[in-house]
Amino acid sequence: MPLEKGLVIVHNRLSHDMYQLEFISPEMAARSKPGQFLQVKVNALNTPLLRRPISIYDVDKSLGSITLLYKVVGQGTEAMSRIRTKEYLDVMGPLGQGFNTSPPGRKILLIGGGVGIAPLVYLARVLKAKNYQVKVLHGADSRRNLVAFEKLREIGVDFLPATDDGSAGFKGLVTDLLATKLKASQIDYIYTCGPDAMMKTVAAYANANQIPGQVSLEEHMACGVGACLGCARQLKSSDREMVKICKDGPVFDIQAVEFSVQGEVSR
Amino acid sequence: MPLEKGLVIVHNRLSHDMYQLEFISPEMAARSKPGQFLQVKVNALNTPLLRRPISIYDVDKSLGSITLLYKVVGQGTEAMSRIRTKEYLDVMGPLGQGFNTSPPGRKILLIGGGVGIAPLVYLARVLKAKNYQVKVLHGADSRRNLVAFEKLREIGVDFLPATDDGSAGFKGLVTDLLATKLKASQIDYIYTCGPDAMMKTVAAYANANQIPGQVSLEEHMACGVGACLGCARQLKSSDREMVKICKDGPVFDIQAVEFSVQGEVSR
Amino acid sequence: MKRKDTAPAKSDLSVRLGPLKLNNPVTVASGTFGYGSEYQDYLQIDQLGAVIVKGTTLEPRIGNLPPRIIETPSGMLNAIGLENPGIDVFLQQHLPWLREHQVSVILNIAGNTIDDYTRICSLTEGHQGIMAIELNISCPNVAKGGLQFGTDPDTVEQVVKAVKAVTSIPIIPKLSPNVTDIVQIAQAAKAGGADAISMINTLMGMAVDIKKRRPVLGNVFGGLSGPAIKPVALRMIYQVYKAVDIPILGGGGIMSTEDALEFIMVGATAISVGTGLFVNPLLPREIIDGLNQYMMENDLTSLEEIRGAAVL
Amino acid sequence: MKRKDTAPAKSDLSVRLGPLKLNNPVTVASGTFGYGSEYQDYLQIDQLGAVIVKGTTLEPRIGNLPPRIIETPSGMLNAIGLENPGIDVFLQQHLPWLREHQVSVILNIAGNTIDDYTRICSLTEGHQGIMAIELNISCPNVAKGGLQFGTDPDTVEQVVKAVKAVTSIPIIPKLSPNVTDIVQIAQAAKAGGADAISMINTLMGMAVDIKKRRPVLGNVFGGLSGPAIKPVALRMIYQVYKAVDIPILGGGGIMSTEDALEFIMVGATAISVGTGLFVNPLLPREIIDGLNQYMMENDLTSLEEIRGAAVL
Ligand SMILES: Cc1cc2nc3c(=O)[nH]c(=O)nc-3n(C[C@H](O)[C@H](O)[C@H](O)COP(=O)(O)OP(=O)(O)OC[C@H]3O[C@@H](n4cnc5c(N)ncnc54)[C@H](O)[C@@H]3O)c2cc1C
Ligand SMILES: Cc1cc2nc3c(=O)[nH]c(=O)nc-3n(C[C@H](O)[C@H](O)[C@H](O)COP(=O)(O)OP(=O)(O)OC[C@H]3O[C@@H](n4cnc5c(N)ncnc54)[C@H](O)[C@@H]3O)c2cc1C
Ligand SMILES: Cc1cc2nc3c(=O)[nH]c(=O)nc-3n(C[C@H](O)[C@H](O)[C@H](O)COP(=O)(O)O)c2cc1C
Ligand SMILES: Cc1cc2nc3c(=O)[nH]c(=O)nc-3n(C[C@H](O)[C@H](O)[C@H](O)COP(=O)(O)O)c2cc1C
Ligand code: FES
Ligand code: FES
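Above: inputs. Below: predicted complex with flavin-adenine dinucleotide.
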């Protein structure tokens, strides 16, 4: 079912502005791949008008549920935080191309910044089940926003946090943790998702060390299915054609993307 | 304070579509008179855009609280029903001219239809405290929507319900109850609020029996304070001037109003 | 093929939009439905009254720089910039797919000059499966100093006349609402020989990124669509229905069956759903069902009975 | 009076709107604030940059039949029909009250003919306390076949010229957005001698009561205001700011300080709050405070520094 009203069974506030929502949709859960996303209708008022793209954070195929992790940043996510358990979530998906879940090599590094950890958790679960050696780096402002900690421990991956205030793990940027504490020779493949500045640094590192990998990009979306051409973006300034983030992405090869080609909208 | 963020202390569903909401605002409570109303902002999304006019249903001056009784009929009242206790209600008021609380005579009849009972309850309380003999007629579809029953019993007035399905009190229209079971000579003053058709019948009865009284009218509102001229209405088709329901009313003398001068908007 | 008469409780939703016979009045607006395949998981597209495909030009276009869309109160601005693969690719790749799926296709075309429009129309000759051509005349018209084609009555009449001369396919000019007098434009379209008119296209608007102190959209201006513009769309259709005898394909902010009924009651023969698809991809189907139910509840045998009913 | 320099952390919000010096750029839009007294429980009206009073005509008018307003997505339609007590009552009853309250008053006037406008202006001569006159030229113009005054550049120029000839009070024509080319209208206003222009008035729209199968509003059409129209307002102000050298009093859907900043960044010198007042009667005060804070955070000494900053 590409459109679902999924019963909300869990909706928790994890930190000041981070929430976790789990809903039931066995078919959607069965079809979801790491890196894909859903278009969520946050309320019945048509305000905000458009659906909001939210990554698939985790899937429980036995329960037939999908979990989302989101951060309240504006009126859409604020309205979303008001959805009650036992209500039905109006979602479209799974949408987009997910991550490559058969990367070359064995030693896999996942780097998430902030809520950018969301698409990497289900990826970690799938890679781990395929017996890859998975190491996850997660950068946050402080300990209380390392919200994926428990899931990652349960999945059983190697977890290295970095916090701005040093309240847990490495004190500083997650990219500094990468540069100073890891050996490039020990990494076969890199996945990253987070703020543009972070992904830019990670991509430079990957390219400098000739490590293949993938990134997950964001762009404002309307349809989410490739029909409106609203989410177009040039991957490199030299590209003549644009890609549709919703349909051709949101995941792209790390080498294919040039960061700072254009800025994000700040409002 | 004509604008208040009042702490919501009670918000209950009373029947299928009727809710009762009590919030704290000592100053607003102190200033409120029966028949006045509030302009309620139902959420923070600006959708619906305009505030919703809701009558003052009851006031507890010692607690400093105001209670509203409302029926969910559209997206505004639906959004209102989602306000949680401990949140703050954004309200303007008290607005408009209330009922005459020193009516001539002693034997006072209040007739409410459906949620039109709302402004009559606080009126009953005030009149009762002034030692008037108060009789309240309330028409509803069935017993479960006689939601003001407990408050009226507590106030200690004579209460005569009428229900369409006969599940409580008189079986039939409240206007038939009035016509068949009451003696006009036993009524010194009439107040009424409810659907136009009901008020029209009550007004005809009052006029035929030369009983003075007041009605509470409704019209779509924007400002609620007399600034936009949006809620204008002709009281009689012969009137040259229009009145502003929000500021000149919502209460008017029963003799001054001709019903069916114009229809309500049905959408 | 004969329609099954055994289907339970089905009203006859068919409408005649000028020379076009549609099974039902519900179409999807150009630019919001791609070339038809994008929404196939959500809708059985052969159930739609018609599919109006993405605006197509003579040559391929890469469109505007991002950001291309931004949400606004009850609406959105878009400045896609007519990204499309060009008419040849449409005719060779997309049209066969649409034909296979037995969809009624309305081709939406755009150009910078009258010549562009006539050349695209000529190219479509001999290709089966295009039910009508919708002329998007809201593009900047270089010859007229940057104002849009659709804002000048004379140009509207000329462009319609010119395309009518080169094709036998019914022509539906799509009117821009960014004009002083929509009736005058509709009259010009009719004078040019239009078979029906489509209205409204987007209102021109913009948004500012106050942090960056610059326009949000890469293109500065964009087209405003969605529920925000519904009151303007209804007003313009009302005006045209009252003054000009031409069938109207109406849209602008339709989000529900009730909205569709408003459009029909001010005179629209068929309606289009655009931005509403993004919010609810099942909307066209829901409106078809909703209209069916409305007709049964109100004992209507044809939507003709309520068309223009609210026009005084 | 000297301004107190001891007040903590206050930016200089004053602006010059042509010949007018306003303490701050925040005004309240005509027709949404009555004659000033209605909102006095909510706002200290002398703190406003200016109060633009209800549209006033030569003779009293009783206005349109109800319903006069209806909510729409992120907006509302109004068809008040210029209910007002006439210019005499304004001058005798309302103006003295406003003077007493030390408010900067902009009188909004409307008429059916050029003569109406000049006669009202003449009547205001000799009355203290009117800082400027806003000309509402969006009323139906009988001489021009029912289209509005504000939609024809020649008429705009004529009416402005005519009123400038009879009064020394600064004149601010208020432009209708229901036009093909707003720049042309603004140029005409300037050519007529306007001291500033005000924009935008409401977009013409309507709504249908599908149960009754008739228009909702007693007047059929109404003016669309509120956040729904903000993108259109911003676009038009951007266009005019870029092309015409005239100060702009901008508004249309302003609901927050951020909205006000968008208007200033596309070129508005002052802004007006209309429909937003109904939602939040404290809004003008909140915007004044918000702009003050913005100036401090961004080290601005004058709003001049960001005016038109987003115009490319
Ligand atoms: C493929 C994809 C996956 C995502 N996954 C997650 C996730 O798992 N968890 C999470 O918290 N967030 C995720 N985001 C970001 C999330 O979509 C935005 O934070 C959200 O749309 C903001 O909506 P708002 O109304 O709260 O904020 P506002 O800033 O008020 O939104 C205003 C407008 O901007 C758009 N917008 C704002 N930020 C973004 C953004 N970063 N990307 C795209 N559109 C944006 C909104 O859709 C809306 O149109 C994802 C984005 C994309 C594109
Ligand atoms: C003075 C006054 C006192 C009122 N007191 C109460 C009360 O105590 N309890 C209660 O349940 N209702 C009361 N109402 C009616 C209440 O205001 C409407 O039911 C409510 O506005 C409907 O909003 P909605 O969005 O849920 O419905 P919708 O029908 O979706 O509203 C659409 C539009 O119509 C307007 N509207 C709809 N019905 C009415 C109406 N009857 N009067 C005015 N505007 C209307 C809304 O404000 C809105 O603009 C009162 C109305 C007035 C004028
Ligand atoms: C993303 C997007 C792209 C559009 N592209 C086109 C187009 O290529 N050609 C065209 O004539 N109209 C185009 N439109 C306008 C729509 O077809 C429609 O006329 C308009 O959006 C109003 O309807 P709505 O409010 O239902 O969306 C586009 C609209 C949107 C939102
Ligand atoms: C109820 C109402 C009455 C109005 N009356 C007038 C008027 O008398 N004269 C005028 O020039 N504009 C009038 N307007 C238009 C407003 O002044 C303003 O230009 C318009 O509403 C757009 O701004 P807003 O979206 O902030 O409301 C009125 C608007 C409303 C909502
Ligand atoms: S969001 Fe519509 S094409 Fe990507
Ligand atoms: S609601 Fe504005 S005058 Fe009554």
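Residues 207 and 216 of chain C are 6 Å apart (CA to CA).
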